[in-house]
């Protein structure tokens, strides 16, 4: 165990988050997402919901402040303008924890899958709610002052 590090951030996941560079993307995926088939790097966090994983990831990873869409979710197929409850929870987490809070942008389902395949890594969660998927773009940490 490490002080100040969320215990769900395994050594493997911490290595991935640390290895990512500015502009790299990571997918936090629900239990139904084709995670392993889509991933270059793949981590399973079975039994843990996606909002919990989002909180843990944002506790150590900055969101990109140089783009308009550092957080992207999958658009609902039957209601493209709708916001699933899990996505509303994602937005609340981003607003509270992210160093650079941003509005989540929806992306059409198949475009989301295509983008996920290009991501640095996929974290497969135990999230059972539909549309419990989010792509985050890693930002930068400013130089320390002093």
Automatic annotation (TrEMBL):
Keywords: Isomerase. InterPro entries: RbsD-like_sf (IPR023750), RbsD/FucU_mutarotase (IPR050443), RbsD_FucU (IPR007721). Pfam families: RbsD_FucU. It catalyses: beta-D-ribopyranose = beta-D-ribofuranose; alpha-L-fucose = beta-L-fucose. The keyword Isomerase applies. The keyword Isomerase applies. This is RbsD/FucU family protein.
């Amino acid at each position: 165990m490490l002080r100040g590090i969320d215990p769900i951030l395994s050594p493997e996941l911490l290595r991935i988050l640390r290895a990512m560079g500015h502009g790299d993307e990571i997918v936090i995926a629900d239990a139904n997402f084709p995670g392993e088939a889509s991933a270059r790097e793949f981590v399973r966090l079975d039994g843990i919901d996606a909002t919990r994983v989002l909180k843990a990831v944002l506790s150590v990873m900055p969101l990109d402040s140089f783009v308009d869409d550092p957080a992207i979710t999958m658009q609902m197929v039957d209601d493209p303008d709708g916001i699933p409850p899990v996505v509303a929870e994602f937005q609340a987490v981003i607003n509270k924890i992210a160093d650079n809070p941003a509005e989540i942008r929806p992306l059409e389902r198949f475009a989301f899958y295509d983008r996920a395949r290009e991501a640095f890594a996929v974290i497969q969660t135990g999230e059972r709610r539909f549309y419990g998927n989010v792509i985050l773009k890693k930002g930068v940490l400013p130089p320390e002052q002093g």
